[in-house]
Amino acid sequence: MRRALIDIDLTEPPAGDAPAEDAPPGGAPPVAELSRRVALADALHAACDYAGAARLLPGLLRALHTETAGPDHPEALRLLCDATHIASSVLRSLGHPSDAWLAAERCRDAADAADDPLLRGYAAYALAGAAIACGSYQRGQTLAERAAGDLGRHLGRPGGSEVLGQLHLVAALASRFRHRLDDSRDWLAEAAVLARRTGETDTKGLFFGPTNVDIWRMSIEVEDGDPALVVEIARRTDPAAIPAGVRQVFYYADTARALARVGGRDREAIRFLLVAERIAPQHVRTSVELAEAIRVLLERSRRQAGGTELRALSERMQVN
Asked: Low complexity compositional bias: what residue ranges (predicted)?
């Protein structure tokens, strides 16, 4: 995918020298077919089938790049923005943050070429998430805050509130990594206000709404905040309100991490981990945070009976 992302530079014409495995037979398919393939990539990502999405994306990115020079270029640019956004999220989830940043930059390029303020906010969300994954927390904060300010003038557009809400959520995450938990909670509160207005949504595959805000709050509180609060939020949250494993897995994984921190609830923590793995095995088995939680639980289980399921999970994740 990295080669495809390097090659789809919108300042250059399509190269026409894609590797054979990435080149579509007979040239680029019609934009309508490319739209269906973007929807498939989005569905694979939403189901946490990162490997499946990664196989599809290189050829799709190249075909969309070709179409940006054709008569359907406005739609091709919008689809390229979607596809590069998906690519950034997939790469981030697979542990390739610098490649995720490159994909997010290509997303921004497509949004700028489309001259669409909503797409610019959508791309800024990808950029902020990639910056945070690279450890550039202040950069992620700045990108999210600036984009939120710019998008605030376009909330009348369909999807504007949802993208703005996601920018608030990623700003909250950046604040947490900068050890500013109060600021993080303020951003979460602003996102919650927007979520009450929008309700549950699936705009741009972001799934912004009250449930997603609660899941983000759980992810933020489980690190430096109050694990008991995470357990309480989990008790009143129904993850099934979001029909996507890519969000549900965080609910189960972060509840497990919180239960492990609360103490005395290791069996429940293991049960939540196993549900997370069933929903999204690729996600769970590549998560550094979950690997650490499993190490802690495994060490405690060695002093107790009943750690069979946990040991099996640790073997699948290659955690010693």
From this structure: 12-31
- Which residue type does 295 have? R
What's the pTM value of the predicted model, to 2 decimals?
A: 0.91
Alpha-carbon gap, residue 187 to 207, rounded angstroms: 17
User: Domain residue spans in the chain?
Assistant: 1-115, 117-208, 239-315
For 238-249, b/e burial (b = at least 16 CB within 10 A) is: ebebbebbbbbb
Answer for the pair 144, 128: CB distance below 8 angstroms, yes or no: yes
Q: Which pLDDT score, from 0 to 100, does residue 19 have? A: 52
Dihedral sign for Cα atoms in the order 167, 168, 169, 174: positive
Instruction: Dig out the tokens for 288 from the structure.
Output: 């550094």
- Calculate Rg over the CA atoms of the chain: 20
> CA 127, 131, 133: angle at the middle one, nearest 5?
120
Which two structure tokens, joined as six digits, stand for 101? 């940043």
In the predicted model, residues of the chain with pLDDT beneath 50 are 17, 20, 23, 305-306
